[in-house]
Amino acid sequence: MGAVLMFFNDCPGGVNCAMDWANTHAEGMASGSPLLSFGSAQTGVYNPKSPGFWRRELLDAAYAGVQFFLLNTYGPDLTAAANPLAQLDQALTDTQSSVKIGLFDDTSTWGHSSGAFATAPDLSNAMVAAQTIFTAKWKPFFSRVKKENWYLFNGQPLIYFYNAGTLTPAAQSAAVVAQLHTLFQAEFGVSPFIAVDEAYFQDSDMPNQADGRFNWDTFRTGAISDNTIKGVRLDHFMVKWDSLSRDNRQRPIIATAGNRLYKDEALLKTRLQESAGSQIAVIATWNDMGEGTGINRNFDYFAGGAWLEPDAFIKDIRATQCSN
Predict the structure, then answer these.
(1) Which long-range contacts (CB under 8 A, 24 or more apart) does 40-48 make?
(2) Do residues 1 and 317 lie in contact, with contact meaning Cβ atoms separated by under 8 Å?
(3) Which of 76, 134, 202, 223 could form a disulfide bond with 183, CB atoms 3.0-4.6 angstroms apart?
């Protein structure tokens, strides 16, 4: 059991952290909180530049019985002056965490940023595209996360390869995934387990090259993403959604059925039961406050005529993952 974890928050008040931009709020969004303390710092903010951010998420995930985080990585975040993965390393060491780390390769940035990400690689040129992706993102990510902290499935580090419509043509993507396997093996001595967004399965050879398959937004389909490739069953699902503030510039607004508000625990409990027989299950997401998909510790969800406990979703996961 794992979850996608966002680490682009710039609290207080910055990216993904405006208090009126989301209806999900975490401790430390607006000001320092003792829940996010670290070392001699008595308080901390909900910001990946702070080791207290990582420490709290690791402790809560471990309590829930979550085995891994897939870090939602855009690419430019790996070259930022304030290295968030260095803060993660501090927190992993401090907590001696049982929670391991994999890569969620969010491809949204290609062609919309600067430097290495200014131009999106052309997937029709498999060798060049794979080398570009590997050099810009996969290699620096796994070079910064210590091997002992990698999440391994059957000995293979786990990578989610997301489709944001920036890498094209999708119908010629299987050879790129094959090359990425080869490049990773050559650099790190092990071949990764690559779970591929279903959009890339336009390439008829993708079932032979991918190790897993997922559909990101399961609210659109109304069903769990459940796929078995090469004998491995991978389940992926969203269970909470509240993007009312983010998606509507005019505030306040009265919600309608079209706003897809999923606030309570019912869907999480259903998906946990449905995925009980899978070898890998991934929740999207642990903490995306803007989309309101997070199931991490929060303090302002009201459902069924009552306030949910801050760790309600965490306890639901624990009930299925832990014997005590």
Answers:
(1) 45/11, 45/12, 46/9, 46/11, 46/12, 46/17, 47/9, 47/10, 47/11, 47/12, 47/17, 48/7, 48/8, 48/9, 48/84, 48/87, 48/88
(2) yes
(3) 134
- The class of domain 2-321 in CATH terms is alpha beta
C-alpha closest to that of 150 among 87, 192, 205: 192
User: Hey, where are the domains in the chain?
Assistant: 2-321
Q: What is the pLDDT confidence band of residue 14, given thresholds at 50, 70 and 90?
A: confident
Task: Take residue 150 and report the two structure tokens written for it.
Answer: 């990698």
More confident residue, 282 or 14: 282
Residue 250 has pLDDT above 80, yes or no: no
Counting residues of the chain whose pLDDT is more than 70, the rounded percentage is 98
CA distance 18 to 12: 7
Packing angle of the helix pair 174-188, 126-133 (nearest 10 deg): 50
